[in-house]
């Protein structure tokens, strides 16, 4: 990936990651990843990051919910409950909200299927080693999610590296 100049949005993202990544490393017993727009941004896509999506195991999500209780946004209910389910909690951290999805599942024609990450890349961002799905893996996930915003982001990611699904 080409190096790019960090702008104000990257600084905010770096600040939020600096608040949460140490806790993820310290408290999670299972693998975890940054996904969504933040993951796309971390691998070089020019996207607006509205929140930091974290994919963890259900057990780690429950554990982190206790550590981050003071930041919990009890008034937020995610859309798409007919399509996605997880141990979901939204937290308000200075700069960006953090959305924790533990044991994320996607509704498919045969029922609920776990969302699994096949390949991981570790991105050095703001002095932190941050695990994200690889470019090809992010494209695969977004195409599987299938919402219009996911399809647009998958097309954008394909333009970064010519990856195909």
Tell me what you see in this structure.
- This protein is an alpha+beta fold and 165 residues long.
- It has a single domain (8-161), classed as Beta Polymerase, domain 2.
- The protein is 38% helix and 27% strand.
- The chain is built from 5 helices and 7 strands; from the N terminus they run αβαβαβββββαα.
- The strands form 2 sheets. Strands 1, 2, 3, 4 and 5 form a 5-stranded mixed sheet that branches.
- A hairpin with a 2-residue loop joins β6 (120-125) and β7.
- α4 (135-145) packs antiparallel against α5 (148-161).
Provide a quick synopsis of the model.
With 165 residues, this protein is α+β, with helices and mostly antiparallel strands. The chain is built from 5 helices and 7 strands.
Overall pLDDT level: 91
Rg, Cα atoms, Å: 15 Å
Largest sheet: 5 strands, mixed
Structural class: alpha+beta
CATH hierarchy, class:
Alpha Beta
Runs with pLDDT <50, length 5+? none
Beta content: 25-35%
Distance between the termini: 20 Å
H/E series, N to C? Answer: HEHEHEEEEEHH
**How many helices?**
5
- CATH architecture annotation: 2-Layer Sandwich
Fraction of helical residues: 25-40%
**Count of individual beta strands:** 7
Number of domains: 1
Q: Predict the CATH topology.
A: Beta Polymerase, domain 2
Shape: globular
Q: Topology of this protein?
A:
Elements: H1 8-27, E1 33-35, H2 36-42, E2 52-56, H3 58-67, E3 84-92, E4 97-108, E5 111-114, E6 120-125, E7 128-133, H4 135-145, H5 148-161
Parallel strand pairs: 2-4
Antiparallel strand pairs: 1-2, 3-4, 4-5, 6-7
Helix pairs in contact: 4-5
């Amino acid at each position: 990936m080409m190096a790019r100049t960090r702008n104000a949005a990257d600084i905010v993202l770096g600040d939020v990651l600096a608040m949460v990544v140490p806790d993820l490393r310290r408290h999670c017993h299972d693998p975890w990843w940054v996904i969504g727009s933040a993951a796309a941004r971390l691998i070089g896509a020019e996207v607006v990051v509205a929140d930091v999506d974290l994919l963890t195991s259900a057990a780690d999500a429950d554990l982190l919910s206790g550590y981050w209780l003071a930041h919990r946004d009890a008034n937020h209910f995610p859309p798409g409950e007919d399509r996605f389910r997880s141990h979901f909690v939204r937290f308000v951290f200075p700069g960006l909200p953090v959305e924790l999805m533990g044991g994320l599942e996607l509704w498919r024609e045969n029922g609920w299927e776990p969302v699994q990450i096949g390949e991981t890349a570790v991105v050095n961002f703001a002095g932190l080693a941050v695990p994200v799905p690889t470019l090809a893996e992010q494209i695969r996930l977004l195409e599987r999610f299938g919402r219009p915003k996911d399809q647009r982001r998958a097309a954008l990611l394909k333009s970064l590296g010519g990856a195909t699904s």
